[in-house]
Write a structure and sequence with these properties.
globular, 7-stranded antiparallel β-sheet, 17% helix, alpha+beta, 3-stranded antiparallel β-sheet, homodimer, 13 strands, 213 residues
Chain lengths: 213, 213
């Protein structure tokens, strides 16, 4: 451990564009690795790697993700609005290279499923494709678009309609062992990580010592 | 791997409240482990463990986090609005028990720094306390409150004013090696995880094979 550096606004301004993007994308900490599946009204499927999926609430069950400004073509966004559905699929080590490749900018008429070699899985309840290879799949109904004025990004929120997962990973108290399912974490734009559990802590109260569950 | 289970709305409704919360908090995948530092106008400091910090943008540099409905006392929220500042501090293995304990509901007049045994660090640019022990600290100016109507949660957004990190962790291309800094990931409400890098991938383009960086 050596020299602590204090980066300020002048340093930020001096950063080259790509450096700046990589640097600031590192700051939030580890991110979830998910593939978002959608389809257009003609049935062309789309797949997009997203590292900004965030829990919004449990009752009703809501999840969201950040989408960059829609000034350019965003298939995921257009499909989600057109059909009202999307899927979130956890990425594990067996599919992470394909998942990363899906972030390439393919034309709208090409399905990333075919381009990167992942399989579609369909269910009646959700008008969007799941990633067959994923071990934790979530089907959602689009609920709300929240506009962020500071930089014209968008928070898209869906309500969970279906969760597909092996019962082996679901604990008696509702905890899903996503590490055992092989779910990966992402750092910055392109770093992928396995995890190694340090355990779970009991619910924290002011006058009680924590226990490991 | 055995029995795949399809959970639907009827299953969700049948879930006991705590099970439901733990279950849905598992779905987003791995989350960042951060301590958010604020202070009130009298200088009483507050610390709160947050697993919903998300990257919003690099230019301007924006980060956000989800806050539950403010129908009850939320010190972090009140302080952030009153002073206009907050800090985000990565959690590593040396402080994760203290970090988890900070999620206990202490009275407003008690500082979680004292209650859980972490040290404050102050800098001129930011009217909020950093966690001295953290290895990646971010000072932010409050920019925007975004209301989520679906469940009355709030997305709070700040602009990065300062980043404090050892130069050892900052790569030539701007990537901050948060795994080397010991930053942890969280699963559901109470699971903590170390990470193990699988490497970084090159920028994905349609007609080019991925390379490991």
């Amino acid at each position: 451990m050596s020299s602590i550096k204090y980066f300020d606004a002048a340093d930020f301004q001096a950063m080259e564009k790509r450096f700046r993007t990589t640097f600031f994308n590192s700051l939030s900490g580890f991110k979830s690795a998910n593939l978002i599946g959608t389809q257009d009204t003609k049935g062309i499927t789309n797949l997009s790697l997203v590292s900004s999926v965030v829990h919004i609430g449990a009752n009703p069950p809501l999840m969201g993700f950040i989408m960059r400004p829609v000034s350019v073509q965003r298939d995921t966004y257009q499909n989600l609005l057109a059909t009202g559905y999307f899927t979130i699929n956890h990425v594990h080590e067996g599919i992470y290279a394909a998942a990363h490749q899906s972030s390439a900018r393919y034309p709208a008429e090409i399905s990333e499923f075919d381009a990167v070699g992942l399989n579609r899985e369909f269910r009646e309840a959700v008008k969007a494709p799941y990633v067959a290879e994923s071990r934790l799949k979530i089907g959602l109904v689009f609920r709300e678009q929240v506009n962020i004025h500071a930089n014209e990004t968008i928070l898209l929120i869906g309500e969970v309609a279906e969760v597909i997962v092996s019962e082996d990973y679901v604990s008696e108290d509702g905890y899903i062992a996503i590490e055992e399912a092989g779910s990966l974490a992402i750092s910055s734009l392109d770093g992928y990580h396995r995890t190694s559990s340090l355990g779970r802590f009991s619910y924290a109260k002011p006058d009680r010592d924590l226990k490991k569950l």
